[in-house]
Amino acid sequence: MAIALCPGSFDPPTNGHIDIAERAARHFDRVLVAVVANPSKRPLFDGPERVRLLSEALAHIANVEVVAFDGLLVEFARRRGATVMLKGVRGASDLGYEVQMASMNASLAPEIDTVFMAARPEWSFVSSTLVKEVAALGGTVSALVPPGVARALRDRLEPG
């Protein structure tokens, strides 16, 4: 059984994240969307909230499971039986960092391969950071995120 692990902070999940998971689900028996607890970031949504938002947005895909984890990614992948790390990349700026991470992961776990999936053009400009900035300034992000995420952003960022 081919298991792919799609790790990320997903703060918040975007339609680009959902698209990568949907496409990955066509190529792997199981896809684990792993919500990273990154201590160097201050998330808008805590880990359980991000897991809930992603689970709702991906509920229509039978072979996708959303999980939370902390610690070393390759150790988590080994424990869950994943043989592939699947990373969505929006462009050259993402790719440089992701190749560096893939090389580190390969040195720690040579049995786990990293596969890069290019973002579709309609999502290539969307990042969680930009979505949060636009939403915080009162802009509409409903075309960029799943409906539940748009509601959660509104609830979290609207004054009063």
Give me a quick take on this structure:
By secondary structure, the protein is α/β, with parallel strands linked by helices.
Describe what you observe in this structure.
- This protein is α/β, with parallel strands linked by helices and 160 residues long.
- The chain has a 5-stranded parallel β-sheet with strand order 3-2-1-4-5, with helices on both faces.
- Helix 2 links the parallel strand 2 and strand 3.
- The protein starts with a strand and ends with a helix.
- The mean pLDDT is 94.
Average pLDDT reading: 94
Per the principal axes of the C-alpha atoms, what is the gross shape? globular
Strand content: 15-25%
Residue share in helix: 40-55%
User: Kindly, what is the distance between the CA atoms of the first and last residues, rounded to a whole number of angstroms?
Assistant: 49 Å
Keywords:
single chain; 160 residues; alpha/beta; 5-stranded parallel sheet; 5 strands
Q: What topology emerges from the helices and strands here?
A:
Layout: E1 3-8, H1 15-25, E2 30-36, H2 47-57, E3 64-69, H3 73-80, E4 84-89, H4 92-108, E5 113-118, H5 128-136, H6 147-157
Parallel strand pairs: 1-2, 1-4, 2-3, 4-5
